[in-house]
Write a sequence for this structure.
C-alpha cells in the first residue's frame, strides 16, 4: 500500500462526528477503542473545542482544511494536521503529520474507493478550480495543492522510469547467472568424476593424508556442483520458466521409496528416520522430479541439522482438499528472527550442519517456489535446540465426476 509508513489516520464518521470506521491507521496503538466514539472525545482536552468547530465546519462548508489538533490514545499524544470532507451522509477525516502526507492519504483513498474518489475529486474541482480571489486562505491552499499534484506527476514518471530500468537489470542478472552456471557445471562435473575415479583406483596406494586431500576435492566439487544446479533452478524460476510436467502419483509409495533411500544417508550420523501414513492411497497430480527435489531438500536438511542419535519423523496425511507431507526433526532449530529469513534466496540461516555440512542458501527458496507452482504452500515451526517441522500442502487429485 502506497501509504505504508505515513504516520496518520483516516476515519469515517457520521454527520454528528461519531466514528464508524478506521479506514487507515499507521499511528494509533488501540484503534478499536475509538470506534463508536465522538471524534472530539478522542482529542486532548486542549483540542476538544477546536474538534467541535472542525466537525461543524465540515457539515457547513462540505470541506475543512488546516486544522492542527492533538489526539490522545493509549496514553500517548499526537499533534496532527487534519482535513475533513463531507461525502453525502458521511464525514471523512484525514489526519497526518503534515498537509503533504494528508494529500497522499487522499490519493490512496481514491484508489481504494472509486465512489469516494469521485466525490473527493468533485469537491476539489468545485472548491479549487476557480478559487475566490478575495479568499487568500483558499487561494494559498489551491496553489499548494497544484504544486503537490505536479510533484506527484513527476515522481510517478520517475518511478516508472526506475521500474523499467530495474526490470532490464533483473533480466540481465538472470541471463548472467544462467550463462555462468552453465559454463561452470561441466568442468565441476569432470572434477568430481575424476576425483571419484582416483579414489577407487588408488585407494590402496595412497597415504592417509593423500586420501584425506582427495576426499576434500570430492566434497568440494560435490558442493559446488550442487550450488550450480541450485543457481540454474533459481534462475529458471526467477525468469518465469518453471515448467511442471505433472502426472498422477500415489504419494504414499513415492515418499516411502524416497525415505528408504534417505535412511542410509541418515545412518552415517546415527539418525533414525520414521515414516507414517494415515492412508494407503493419497493421490495427487504433480511433477515427480520436482517433488523429489522438494522432499530430498527437506529430508537432507533435517539430517544436516539433526544431532547424532536423534530421530526424524516423516508423515503423510490428508487435510481438507490437501495432502500434507510433514518432516520433523530434533535438531538445532531456529529462532523467530531466523524463521523470518528462511525462504529468502542467498540467505544462510546456519553456517553449517551438526557435522560440518555446507549450505548454499538457495534450496528452501527453490522448494517454496516449486510447492507454490503446484498450487500448494509450505509452513514451518521451530524451537531452538529442540527441532524444526516443515509441512508441505499439495492439492489432492480431484475426481472427474
Amino acid at each position: 500500500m502506497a501509504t505504508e509508513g505515513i504516520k496518520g489516520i483516516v476515519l469515517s464518521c457520521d454527520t454528528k462526528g461519531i466514528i464508524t470506521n478506521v479506514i487507515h491507521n499507521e499511528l494509533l496503538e488501540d484503534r478499536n477503542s475509538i470506534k463508536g466514539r465522538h471524534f472530539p472525545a478522542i482529542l486532548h482536552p486542549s483540542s476538544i473545542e477546536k474538534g467541535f468547530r472542525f466537525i461543524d465546519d465540515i457539515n457547513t462548508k462540505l470541506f475543512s482544511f488546516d486544522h492542527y489538533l492533538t489526539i490522545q490514545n493509549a496514553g500517548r499524544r499526537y499533534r496532527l494536521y487534519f482535513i475533513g470532507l463531507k461525502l453525502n451522509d458521511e464525514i471523512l477525516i484525514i489526519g497526518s503529520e503534515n498537509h503533504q502526507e494528508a494529500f497522499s492519504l487522499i490519493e490512496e483513498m481514491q484508489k481504494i474507493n472509486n465512489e469516494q474518489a469521485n466525490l473527493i475529486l468533485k469537491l476539489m474541482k468545485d472548491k479549487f478550480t476557480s478559487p475566490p480571489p478575495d479568499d487568500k486562505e483558499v487561494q494559498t491552499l489551491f496553489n499548494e495543492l497544484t504544486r503537490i499534484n505536479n510533484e506527484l506527476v513527476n515522481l510517478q514518471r520517475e518511478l516508472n522510469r526506475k521500474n523499467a530500468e530495474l526490470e532490464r537489470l533483473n533480466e540481465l542478472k538472470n541471463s548472467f547467472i544462467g550463462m555462468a552456471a552453465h559454463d561452470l557445471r561441466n568442468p565441476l562435473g569432470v572434477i568430481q568424476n575424476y576425483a571419484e575415479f582416483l579414489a577407487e583406483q588408488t585407494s590402496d596406494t595412497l597415504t592417509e593424508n593423500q586420501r584425506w586431500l582427495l576426499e576434500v576435492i570430492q566434497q568440494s566439487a560435490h558442493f559446488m556442483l550442487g550450488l550450480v544446479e541450485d543457481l540454474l533452478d533459481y534462475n529458471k524460476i526467477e525468469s518465469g520458466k518453471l515448467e511442471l510436467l505433472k502426472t498422477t502419483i500415489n504419494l504414499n509409495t513415492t515418499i516411502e521409496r524416497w525415505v528408504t533411500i534417505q535412511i542410509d544417508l541418515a545412518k552415517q550420523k546415527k539418525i533414525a528416520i520414521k515414516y507414517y501414513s494415515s492412508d494407503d492411497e493419497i493421490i495427487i497430480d504433480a511433477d515427480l522430479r520436482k517433488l523429489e527435489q522438494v522432499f530430498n531438500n527437506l529430508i537432507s536438511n533435517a539430517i544436516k541439522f539433526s544431532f547424532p542419535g536423534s530421530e526424524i519423523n516423516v508423515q503423510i496425511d490428508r487435510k481438507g482438499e490437501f495432502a500434507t507431507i510433514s518432516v520433523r526433526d530434533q535438531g538445532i532449530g531456529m529462532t523467530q528472527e531466523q524463521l523470518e529469513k528462511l525462504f529468502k534466496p542467498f540467505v544462510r540461516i546456519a553456517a553449517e550442519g551438526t557435522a560440518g555440512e555446507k549450505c548454499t542458501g538457495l534450496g528452501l527458496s527453490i522448494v517454496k517456489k516449486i510447492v507454490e507452482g503446484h498450487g500448494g504452500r509450505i509452513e514451518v515451526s521451530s524451537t531452538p535446540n529442540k527441532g524444526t517441522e516443515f509441512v508441505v500442502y499439495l492439492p489432492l487429485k480431484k475426481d472427474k465426476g
In short: The chain has a mean pLDDT of 78.
